Amino acid sequence: MLVVGGGDSAIEAAVALADQPGTDVAPSYRGEAFNRTRRQNRDAITAAVADDRVTLHLQSRVEDIGSGHVSLRYCGEQLDVPNDHVIVCAGGELSTGFLHSMGIRVERKFGTVGTGIVIDTTEETKTPHLKAA
Q1: What global pTM score does this model have?
Q2: Domains of the chain, each with CATH number or no CATH
């Protein structure tokens, strides 16, 4: 499971997933360190890495998401990692243009309850082997 992002949400997701039996978690963050996060979250991710529950890829960015793998640009080199799922926790603004390009319809519903993202029942996108859930 690749978790992309360097904020509190990404770290919290990675640590929670690492606590699930049989789950391999690999956070990817473009920065050199988690500087924008709460101390509690930095301590939690540091402990998860020290306990070999998380494989951390700092100074990395996602180059490609394929069927059963992701490619990262990691310290200047391409790294192919076996992977089944990606969670993106990046930025405070939803990347609607990017989501639209994959065939995901986004509806903004300010002040209402709901996900705001509408996905058909097949979870299909325009990108082969990429599903939205």
Answers
A1: 0.70
A2: 2-92 (3.50.50.60), 93-133 (no CATH)
